[in-house]
Design a protein that fits this description.
The complex is a heterodimer. Chain A is mostly beta strands. Chain A has four helices and 29 strands. In chain A, 14% of the residues lie in helices and 36% in strands. In chain A, the strands form seven sheets. A five-stranded mixed sheet of chain A has the order 2-1-3-4-5, with helices on one face. A four-stranded antiparallel sheet of chain A has the order 8-7-6-29, with no helix packed on it. In chain A, helix 2 runs parallel beside helix 4. The radius of gyration of chain A is 25 Å and the shape is globular. Chain B has a four-stranded mixed sheet. The chains are: A mainly beta, B alpha+beta.
Amino acid sequence: MVKKSFTLLLVILFLLIILGEFLWAKVYIDIRSPSFRKFPIAISPFKTPIFSNEEMKLEERATEILTNDLSISGFFALIDPRTFVENRVRALPRGSSSVTAQGPAASPSEAIDYRSWANIGAEALVLGEVSYKDRSLILEARLYDVVKKELIVGRRYIGEITDLSRMVHRFADEIIFALTGEHGFFMTKIVYISKATGNKEIYLMDFDGRNVVQLTRHQSICLSPRFSPDGTKVVFTSYKAGNSDLYIKDLRTGEERGLSHYPGLNISPSWSPDGQKIAITLSKHGNPEIYTIRPDGTGLLRLTDHPAIDVSPAWSPDGKRIAFVSNRGGNPQVYIMDADGQNIQRLTFEGNYNTHPAWSPRGDRIAFDSLIEGNHNICTIHPDGSDFRILTANLERCETPSWSPDGRHLVFSSTRGGGSNIFLMDAEGTRIKRLTFQKGGDTYPNWSPRLKE
Amino acid sequence: MFRKSSVWLVVLVSVVAIAFIATGCAKKQVIKEEAEAKPVVEAKKEEPKPEPARVAEKPKEEAKPEEAKPEVRAEAKPEEAKPEAKPEEAKPEAKPEEAKPEAKPEEAKPEAVARPEEKPTPIDLAGLRIQFAFDDYNLSSKAKENLEKIASWMSRNPSVKIQVEGHACEIGTNEYNLALGERRANSAKKYLEGLGVSSARISTISYGEERPLDPGHTEESRSKNRRDEFVKMK
């Protein structure tokens, strides 16, 4: 009897503790509500100690990157920095990196004049400091609740000089998680094709267009780069051996190996969400059909069998279905089939040229590009065929949409302003932002999953 | 009984204590992390910093894996040169190319003797390129006419092999256009086979919209780009 009641007590205590955690965690922004209010936040310009190298303007860059991140997220109303009164913020407690911990004898919150931030409309405030010494970069940043006058989250990062943007993106992710309860997407990258060297090669950049790196030097034609679901590899088409073949590049080691080199087309790869298969298009029997293959090149399996063109497979996030393009109805349209090739159904009926489907990571929309009145536009549709929406207009040729990991944004290529460049917009088609500015013609963006590192 | 319950008491107390410590820490983490060494550790984990550097180095390494797979398409290598020598743009270049095979007798040892005698009769393959309608791979009567000329030339020159290049205009996504180009190339190949040319003498490749004949963006240039090109192999 005693034993039983003890056990019961134990269970109850546990439940209380666990539930308590949830009850105390406040959600500041309910982003699941379609009409959520943009959360007013102030980002005080990052500080830097006098001794750090001023030429690099690290603090300005940190402020700029963070402001840009939060602005792109769409969750925030950023308070105009011109309304800030600088001396409202006393310097953050600082000291040598090892001493910082003891600093808050006067806790940081006491140094902040919350009322003056509240007066300019801020409900949250970000304070930060960047310093660079002894060849290590230190970034400290804190997010405060201005109304409750308390610290919500604080972080301190130490790394190399080249890590600044990564540190800021990580803190931006912390802010999103602390305020919304969902994970942000600032630690992500975009692969794309650029003709900057004269040949189409694969490039990698941060989701915000920074830190561009050239990945291939095939001096041929590279096309259709797509991330593996863990973000460590990219599968793509290249003509470097004379034919359109598929390759996989490991982003950590730089190693590159062939995936398939059948006669004819080896194109339009799409990695399954569980990472076990890659859906591809082959024409080894004379007609473009969709197959799956394992990442090691074995286990080739044919999914479609139709005299028309079948191309551009895109997996649903649960891996159970595949959207693809077929002209079996007379012109290219998006179709959906089960992952084993059965149960093919036509998805798009608007217009006579719909290609390049991309299934939202949330599963609720499929983006594709559609030829409307002579121009390509990015559209989305519900996977049951309802709620067709055109997202772009007057943006010239918009092609190859790819979703952000949170399903709230899309990247695509557009020829607005001359050559083709990569653009970013939210899933409603508003707040369009240009990410690349090369004249070389940038196409085929593919957004990575959230990267751990 | 007494003993048992005291054991339970100890267990209970310790479990609750652990639970509190665990959750307490989790909560305070938020505040403390910046104060304590924790984030330092966390941040240090980030130290796959060499990565950007490695990424940059990759391309150098690339060369090796490439060399490792030459068997993949050894015979295709000469093709690499071809695209630049695309027919009409580069007629003068096409000739030196034709000359090359003779310059490399080791490539064709068995035929080495036969070759010089069987020098193919000249033909303007670039001039025989065939056009297609938008999003279409059916052969027009003009296209069939050109293919018949090519077929008869091939029957007169039985050692000749050709590659049919399928191309598309810039409208549409490249992946679909690659598929379309493949179908266009195959349309021509099938027609040639129907005229008695052995399929072993005709290879196909699709470049989609990647190699336009006319880089313009007008309908006129686009219609020029919806085409098959014929290239003599080796």
